[in-house]
Amino acid sequence: MSTIKDRFNLDGKVAIITGSSKGIGKATAKAFAECGATVVISSRKQDACEEVVAEFKALGLKAIAISCHVGDENSRKELAEKTIAQCGGIDILVNNAATNPVYGPIEDAPLDAFDKIMNINVKAPWDLANKCLDSIKSRGGGSIINISSIEGEIPGYGLGLYSTSKAAVSMLTKNQAKEWGRHNIRVNAICPGLIQTKFSAALWTDDKVMGHINKKLPLSRMGQSEEIASVALLLASDAGSYITGSLQVADGGYLISG
Ligand SMILES: NC(=O)c1ccc[n+]([C@@H]2O[C@H](COP(=O)([O-])OP(=O)(O)OC[C@H]3O[C@@H](n4cnc5c(N)ncnc54)[C@H](OP(=O)(O)O)[C@@H]3O)[C@@H](O)[C@H]2O)c1
Fold first, then answer.
1. Ligand 1 centre from 21 Cα, in Å?
2. What is the CATH number of the domain that holds 206?
3. Residue 162: active-site member
4. Which of 140, 148, 173, 206 has the highest CB neighbour number within 10 Å of its CB?
5. Domain that holds residue 207
6. 3-class secondary-structure state, position 128
7. pTM (two decimals)
8. Is the minimum distance from the CB of 120 to ligand 1 under 6 angstroms?
């Protein structure tokens, strides 16, 4: 049996992480690269991706930049095809990019906001995984990680459509895991609580929200991107070889805080 360190090793693996120019995606890409993977840094902006690649390469890590707007089908197709052309195949996919363009009562959200949220948060991870599937299969299997949210498990206030989209991501994960286990492809979701990134800045700059977090959460603080990246590493590597169809909650105890 290999050592536990070997089981976290990603040498020779190729990982696509969408939305990896900052936040949780970037921290996840760095963790994978530090464990030996070649990582594909991807976001809507090629420049931002190339900056991350330069930063990683200066640390001796293996990374390439391929921009992709996950809401655009052609862009998703190119991300998969260019990765295969430049890296020889795909072993790991992290569907991390997401959007939340509206905040407020669920009945006030415009119809086009619904379409945008579902397109980027649900349709994109489903379709990108489909586009990577043949390559992952041809490598004897792999790991797909969908970044969901605790908002998909319990409704918050003002995030109704986002919350609904994340519940769909969690169920998508279970269906993919059920259908693709026979190809040795594991599919899991991570449900982060409040993590300090640009995406969530409206929450962690709000004294009322932070007062609630500090008082009610068992761990009395918000999380950092690296604390999600380490969960992703478990799921991506052989260390998580018997985990599939799961939702991994990393929320400082939010869901049990009542
Ligand atoms: N932060 C939290 O508290 C929290 C909690 C639960 C779940 N999550 C989930 O965690 C994931 C990452 O969020 P984050 O907090 O790390 O966000 P972030 O720091 O704002 O980073 C988002 C990343 O996604 C990219 N991106 C945005 N829209 C994109 C699109 N349409 N196509 C491709 N890339 C896109 C951004 O780059 P460009 O702008 O250059 O495209 C950036 O690299 C999301 O799925 C979010 O729902 C976050």
1. 9
2. 3.40.50.720
3. yes
4. 148
5. 4-256
6. helix
7. 0.98
8. yes
